[in-house]
Amino acid sequence: MIKTFTQDDVVRYVYEETSPEESLLIEDALMAEPDLMTFFLEALELRALMNKIERQPRTSTVEAILNYSQNHPANPSARLQKS
Prior knowledge:
This protein is mostly helical. It has 2 domains: 1-52; 56-83, no CATH class. It contains 5 helices and no strands. It has helices at residues 7-14, 20-32, 34-51, 59-71, 76-82. Helix 1 packs across helix 3 and helix 2 (20-32) packs across helix 3 (34-51).
């Protein structure tokens, strides 16, 4: 029986979520199917680009969290300030 691989299978392969046996079969399919190989190369590029993304919270968000934690009843210093 010939297994047909989908783009979902390729994504799992890109993220190393396939078994060694399945990986070999996917690699064979990539060599035999140009469209699947094109998708694979695009997926690799997207993964590399996404790994470069750096996100940081807004300063106001960090300040709100710190303010909340400083005034939270479970914070010992907050209890002392209210006494």
